[in-house]
Structure formats: structure tokens, C-alpha cells
Amino acid sequence: MSTSQDSLPTKTAQQMSMDGDEPPSKYIINNNYTDKFGPLETSPPFAQVPIIDIGCFLSSSKQYGQQIELAKLRSALTTWGCFQAVNHGLSGSYLDNIRQVIKQFFELPLEEKRNYFRETGSVEGYGNDMTYSENQVQDWCDRLFLRILPEDQRKLRFWPKNPLNLRETIDEYTKNIKSISVVIFKAMAKSLDLEEDCFSKHFTEERDVLQGRFILYPPCATPDQVFGLKAHSDRSGITLLLQDPGVEGLQVLNDGKWYMVPVIHDAIFVNLGDQMQIMSNGIFKSPVHRVVTNREKGRISVAMFTEPEAEKEIGPVDALVDERRPRVYKTVKDYAAFNHECFQKGVVALDAVKL
Ligand code: OGA
Ligand code: NI
């Protein structure tokens, strides 16, 4: 892995924001920056992303309401690749507490957060995005990235000791995210008339793999020239995201157009990642998304990524391959590493696994 370009910021985005600095030139999208997904728009139309009552998937009966939600789910994932999950069993105050704990971490003095700084050439820990090339436009955000599961792979030196309840909060939230994800994986399978566990088994059979990215997008003096997070699709199987109830910022690409994802206070925003697009033989979408910044308001988000174990081969599930729908994707192992390699070569990983 080439890491010679990578470095920790001399000043975090948060610090620059607090000092009233204009974003430095490496954050600015200039005329040389060509994004194949289109130019930055700070306020595109709102995305009519379906709101899905996932509570109704919990009961095993085939009641009418469940059938309606399953059809909505299928339609959401084949068109947008994402939806807003409501009735997921986690209360608004519980979710507020998680956001609060993350906020408290970012509010610590930089000297303390420095203890958790990532190392150059590695993403885990507190800091900025890794830099792969000189021309890379920087994201206006600071993040804490942690490998949460499997538990024996945790690097506790990156886990903040402060706020005191942070570790415990992440642990508990992880358990909840795991159970919600299983419900969603099973519902996805049912929505395609497949065996209930045909997706979930790839994620939960042996060891779960889950990463958390806790992000602060500080207020930015020039939101029309800077990305909070550049356009990407997630490499995960599924991503569950807590948005900041105070401000929008997440945008999703659909049919070549950008839309702003509305904030619904107690909803969990769910998007699929590349590995589910592959497993579903291209039926479900892994949407391209990005984040824009705001002049007045900072934004916090909590993203939890679930993916299969690196050693496991993944590919389109058998039941979704037939003469009518030939196999679209190859089988891959360690999609994370593959995705990383593609990214460095400037290739879209999903294109590179196409047959
Ligand atoms: C991500 C992501 C969105 C957000 O971390 O991959 O897309 O709103 N985050 O922070
Ligand atoms: Ni993402």
C-alpha cells in the first residue's frame, strides 16, 4: 500500500472552523477537480426515500401489513438503495444519547484527542481521510474510525477513554445494530422470495465484522466549494447511519441526479453497500452518496458498517442467478482490500468485479 502521500492534518477541520479559518486550498474543489458524479450542489431537492416500518418484519406471520412493507423495501432497494427505518425498537432518547456521547468526544481538547490519532497509512483512529494522491481533495470533517467486531480485533488504544461511557455506549449500540441488521437482511431475502437466511448467513454465520465511523462536520465558511465527504459508495454489506437531527448534509445520487436526504429525528438511515449489490446479483443498489457542509451548523453522524468476513468468498446468491438473469458479478474474497486497491488505481470496484 502506498502511503507516502498520507499525513495527519496539521490542523483538524474542527480547529480551523473554531479559529474562523477559510478552508485551505487542498480542501477546495477547483476547476481541475472533475467528479464523474457531477458538481457540488448545496441544496438539491429532497430525496423521497421510502420510510419503512421495520418493526413489522419482526413477526413471522405473513400478515398483510408485512407484505406491504416488504414490497416497499424491495422497491426502495432496487431504486434508491436506501431507506429510512422507523419502528426499529430504539427510542429517540436512546439515539440522542449516542449522538451526545460522540459529540462530547469531539468537544474534548485536541491534546486529549491526539492520543487517539490514527497512524499514517492506516484509517483506524481519530483524524482525517487517508491521502492517496497529491491531487486528492480533502474532506471537511474529522472522524473516529473503529473496528468494533470481531471483538478480538479491537485496538483499544484508539478507543477513547473519555467520555467515560463511550466504550460502553458503542458496545451496547453495536448489539442493537446487529439485531436490527439481521432483521433487515432477512426482510431483504423475503422481499425477493428467497430463503430467509440467504443474506444474513454471510454476515452472522461465524464472526460478525462491524466498523464504526463517528464523524464531525464542523461549520464551513465556504460550503459551496468544499465536500464534507466526497462521493462514494460504501464497501459494506449494509450501513446504518444516525444523522444529526439539527442539520441535513447527506446527499444520495439517483438516476444521475443528486438529492438531499431528509432528517427524520428518530429514524435510522439504511443504505446498502457494494457487497450486497454483488450478493443480490445487481438487483439491489449500493447508492453513491456524499456529504455537504453548512456555514452555520456543525453536524455529527454515526455510521455502522457491517460486512462479511474477509476470508469468505462472496458472490451472487444462487437463487438469483438463472437464464433470465445471468450472473453479473464474479466471486470475490476480501472485498475491503480489493476495494482499496481499486480506489488507489482510480477504478470503481463494482465495475472491476463485473463479469
Ligand atoms: C460514510 C458516510 C454519511 C454521513 O461514513 O461512509 O457516507 O452522513 N457517511 O456522515
Ligand atoms: Ni458512505
From TrEMBL:
Compositionally biased residues, Polar residues: 1-17
Gene3D superfamilies found in the cross-reference section: B-lactam Antibiotic, Isopenicillin N Synthase, Chain
Highest taxon above the source species: Eukaryota
Chain residue ranges for the region called Disordered: 1-25
The keyword Secreted appears for this protein: no
Domain Fe2OG dioxygenase: 206-308
Keyword Transmembrane tagged: no
PROSITE patterns recorded: FE2OG_OXY
Keywords assigned: Iron, Metal-binding, Oxidoreductase
PANTHER family given in the database record: OXOGLUTARATE/IRON-DEPENDENT DIOXYGENASE
Protein name: Fe2OG dioxygenase domain-containing protein
